[in-house]
Specification:
Blueprint: H1 3-8, H2 11-18, H3 22-26, H4 30-62, H5 65-68, H6 73-117, H7 128-134, H8 148-169
Length: 171
Amino acid sequence: MNATVLAALNGSERQLIAETGPKALALLDEDEVAALHTRIQRARNKYVGLYRRGASARVVDRGARGEARPKNRTAALKVEAFEDALSRVSRRLAALSRESASALRTERIEAARAAKAGTSKSAAPKSKSNRKASATATPRGDRALRSPAREKNRAGTTAMGARRQAKRDSR
């Protein structure tokens, strides 16, 4: 990062940017990187808003967006710094997510193979009553009350009713 961008940042912002270095990111697990990603995103969004509001307020005085831009240099530099930091954190988060998804997939495949072979990890098979007690109270997957398929069906039904009503009203 160049000296101009670093000079635009205050102490806490410099510390936040320093947390996105390769050595610092290597020490964090997936949840910590996700939390850092959120913090960087919020900081970037803050300065994007300040930059846009400042530029739009100066347009009236200057008469053009191009004329108003140079006065807003500090906010633009901060946005640039946080954008770079966000890209580093996003790449690290994506890599950690791929690793954990791969590990989870491997674990599930092994469990399925063990169950198919009849050598499940649990010693005693669960009875039917035990399975009901451990089941979740809310439906999941396609049976969920707010699944995408149900939302699409609901929207189609609403649209069909609106078309029928429009046809009746036009008579």
